[in-house]
Structures are given as C-alpha cells and as structure tokens.
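Hi R.,

As promised, here are both runs. First protein below:
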Amino acid sequence: MGRTSLAVKGAILLAAIFVFLKVGVPLFTAPLPMSLVWLYVFLTACGIVVYGTLTGESSESLFGTVFRFLGGGGLGGTARSLRLAVLVLFPLWVGWVTYDDLAPQTEPPVENRVIHPAPPGWFVGLANPVPNTPENVMMGKGLYAAYCSPCHGAMFNGNGPASDGWNPPPANFVDSGTIAQLQESYLFWRIKKGGVGLPVEAHPWKSAMPRWEVELPDEWIWKIIMAEYAGSGHKPRTWE
C-alpha cells in the first residue's frame, strides 16, 4: 500500500458520498437539503480521520501527503505550481462564496409563483365528513404529533426540530396568513398529495411536504386538519 493511498481513498470516498447524496438520492426520493448533505460529508470525514489515526503508519498515510504538499518540501516543478495555485485560489473561492452568500440580492425572481394554487376540481368544496367532537380533535392532535410536528412544530408554529433543514420552511399555522385563509378542503388536498402534487403554477416551489395519501386514510387526514385549526386558534375559511 502506497504512502498516499489512504489520503487518496479518503478524498474519493468524500467525493462519492457527496455525489450520491446530491445526485443519487433525488432519483429515488425528495432532494436532501444542503445542510443535511454537508452534515453527512462531515461525519464521513470524521470517520476517515478516526480510522486514519489508529496507528502511526495510517496517520502518516493520511496526513503525510497533505503536510508535504502544504509545506512544499520535496515537490517538483509541476507540484510546486499546483501547490501555489491551490494556496491562492482556495482563499479566493472561499471569499467569493462568502460574499455571494451575504451580498444583497437585487435581481427579481426568475418567475412568479402562486402561493396557494388552486387544487384539482374534485377537491374544491369538499366538506369535512368527520364530526368535530372533542374525541376526534384529541385523536387528530395525536396524529399531528406523530406525523406533522417534526416539521410544523408541537405548537403549530412551523418550528419543529426538523424545520431548519427545509427551504421554504414548514408553514406556521399560528400565522393568520396560512390556514386561517384556507378552506378545509384545501388542506385536505395539500396533505393528501404533498409537494409532488403541486401544479405547474406553484413552481418554482421545492416543497418537501410528503404525500400522505399512502400512509394516512382520509379520516385521519380530516382529524389532523381539525387538530391544526384547534391548535392554532383559527377557524376554517368558509364562503358566505
């Protein structure tokens, strides 16, 4: 095994993990947020470092090449030029990414999107067939806690433990601009069909809302809707 083999294998593994999470995973499910992708890459790097420091030989194999490259010792002309390019271009790249992330954006959006697109025809005007009883609301709150609160929060405010990973963030039901403006039939459609069920006019909106029609029967969805209104302090919108 060569002196640089562990360092090279570690770099290849990190690149493979990144490509798999960024390109491979979206082929089978919803795209992962970049914060989660970088978390997995960081954990993989930590694993490589732990493995590479088990023995003196593995430590040399992992870090020796990096130290020699940065120090410039024993490098030929081509390697020295590459080292100089890395030491100059990497800080410039970090500075550019930081500036681009923090600089005010004045460009208009690529295209307008409809915040609350119209649902398919057969969802329009649906009435909640489940009686609004304390027992049904209580069951709905239990279902909400199990399926919805990780993103939308136990207090119905969109501040669940998983909410930081999504853009746009989960809806804040306490806000008077969300479910207070909507009919129950609209919520039934959004919960049942999820982000993948949004029509073209709602794009570009990379909603991570799951499609719950497989896991949840209609009766459970209606009870969850009652719980959301009860927990947020709002009432469903009705047409006079």
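And here is the second one, sequence first, then its structure tokens:
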Amino acid sequence: MKKIITISIFAAILACAIPAAAQKGYSIPDSLDYRKNIIKWNMTPFLLWSKKNINIGYERVLSPYRSFSVNAGYFELPALFKGLADSLEIESSNKKAGFSVSGDYRYYFKNRNKNMAPDGLYWGIFGSFYHYQFENDITIINSEAIQGNLQFGANINIFNAGVELGYQFVLWKDRMTIDVIFMGPSLSMYAKKFTLGGDITVDEEDEYLKAIYDILSSTIPGFDQLTQEGKLSTSGVNLSMGYGLRYMIQIGFRF
C-alpha cells in the first residue's frame, strides 16, 4: 500500500506541474517562420549495447521555452555470459528481443539561453518503459566436470519516472540538433522473471565450477533460488538518486 501511495503522489505532482508551468510561457507568433519539429535518432542503445537497437524520437516545441518529446524503438541487451562460453567450452544459441518507450516535458531556461527552444540548457520531467526478454539454450561440450543441456530465460519490465537535465545544440543553419541528457534521477518500478531448466550433471567437487558458482551467486540476486527451484520472480519499487541514471545522446533534423 505504501508503494502505491508513493507512486500516486509522485504522478499527481507531475500532472499538476505540467499545465501550471506551461501557462508561464508565451506563444510564438504565427508570422514568425519558426521550425517547431525535430526528428531524432537516439544513438545511446546502439553504441552501448547492440547494433540492432534502433530508437527514433520526435520533439515538438510548444512555446519559446517549452517542448515535449517521445521516443520508441527496438531494444535488446548484449549476451549475458559473453566471454564465459569459451572458457567453459559450451555451444549456445539465444533468442532475445525487446522495446522501449519514453517521453518527457521540457523547460528551457529563459534567462540562461540566448535563443528560444529547442536550443540551450533545459530541465524536464520524464517517464520511460523498457521490456526485454531472452532465452538461451546451452550445450556443454568437451568437459568432464559438467555435461548436458541447459535452458536459461528471462522476462524483464522496468518503468522509470523522474527529472532530467540536458543541453541541446542547434547547428547547420538551424537544421541539425545534438541533444545530450547527462543527469536524471528517477523512481523505478520493476518486474523480473527468470527461468532455469535442463538435464545438466555436474561434478560438485570441481573447484573451477565452485568458483564460477560463487561469482554468479554473488553478482545475480536470487541465483541460489533460481538453481534450486528453476524459476525466480521479483518485483518492487526502487528509489535511486545520482548521476548517470538517465543519459542519452540524440542527433536530430529540425523542420
């Protein structure tokens, strides 16, 4: 109940803040030839995690110092045990897929920026949702200590809401934009489900396997439960404050 009340209060504050702040801006004259739209490519998941990640965004200027933006696209993470396969002498195949959706409402600093939105320093409120799932089929080869097949899968959903600080550069005759979000503390809600199955036989006395188990057990919350019961489901609310919780680099075309 406390979690629901906290989330409801947070959502109500955001809902009230948007119309109240929007009334303080003034309208752009219709006679002014002003480019209010930007199509963007979010480079961050493409560069950090997978070349398959394609995320497209759109920003609309509402007033000289207010705008909103939305982003959506395909999302996947790199292999969970990349590099471990060779040392264990295993063959693996995996299926993975996901998507992300996010949006924000921006307030460009009137006294700080020389130009009107979307150029300059801004802060905003944002929300984002990530869904990611994968299945790994693993076959052990050339190992005396461990043999058999293993299936490992996960289904992960994460919702974030918080505030952000960023800067958008407008270049190339007011046509090209570079949007950088460099700080964004948020409230996160998550639901995760992991599954583990197969017909693995293991030499429990092998010291190398014990060392690997200890590493996985210390780095993956609930790993012991997962190996014993074959599944693990977790959900909850996590309040995180600090730098780097939301960061993004986008290249856009303004029109």
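A quick note on the second one: The chain has one domain: 34-254. Let me know what you think.

Best,
J.
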